[in-house]
Each structure stands twice: as C-alpha cells, then as structure tokens.
Specification:
Length: 122
C-alpha cells in the first residue's frame, strides 16, 4: 500500500445493511475505513457481547458525517473533523451518512467481527 491508502485500495472486511468496513492490518492493529448510512445502529449486532456493547477500544477520525456513541456514561456526538477514543462498552448510531477511519487492536477487532458476522448470517 505504500505510504498511503485510498478507499478502493483497502479490501472489504464486512458488508451489511447500510454498512461497509474495509480493513488492513499493520503491527497488530486493524486499520479500518468505515461507511455507515444514516440510521444504522449497532444495538442488535452487539447483543450477546458483555453488556450487549462493543468490547473493543477504538481510536479514529470522523471524515464526514455525524456519529453518536452510546457509552456507559451516556451518548456523545462526533462530527466530521473530530478525532476520538471510544473505550470498550459502547454502541454506535449513524446520525447522518458517516465515513470514518478507525484503528483497533487486531485480536479484539477479530472477535468483534466474528460476533457481528454470526449475527448478520443468522
């Protein structure tokens, strides 16, 4: 991938209703480009995880759109241009169509994606 990467250069890791995640791994980190359509929520997908919430920590940057994160301390909204750290224990809601870069620990993210893939195929 050289020094940079573009959307079309990154392989698709997951597709679902209103969702596309593209991912590559480097040095134990999952680097993801994510698109969610307005209205997408993760509540149903994360059911069955501890507390029915994502158990990964994520660091990232909202490229476009608006995302609401429902954490144990209440909801917080992030807009284009903002960077974030979301600790474990959250659900997501795409307030508008949103496009963002996210970095997570690969092993944690693999467990999350395995769970989500099972939910989508059920």
């Amino acid at each position: 991938m050289g020094d940079g990467f573009a959307w079309e250069d990154v392989p698709i890791a997951l597709e679902g209703p209103g969702t596309e995640i593209r991912r590559f791994d480097a040095d134990g980190l999952a680097v993801c480009l994510i698109r969610l359509e307005a209205g997408v929520r993760t509540d149903e997908l994360f059911k069955g995880l501890p507390g029915d919430r994502c158990q990964c920590a994520h660091w990232g940057h909202i490229i476009s759109g608006r995302m609401r994160v429902h954490g144990t301390d209440g909801p917080k909204t992030y807009e284009a241009g903002e960077s974030y750290h979301w600790p474990p224990g959250h659900n997501l809601e795409a307030v508008t169509n949103v496009y963002y870069l996210e970095i997570s620990r690969s092993q944690e993210y693999d467990r999350l994606m395995d769970h989500v893939s099972r939910k989508l195929s059920a």
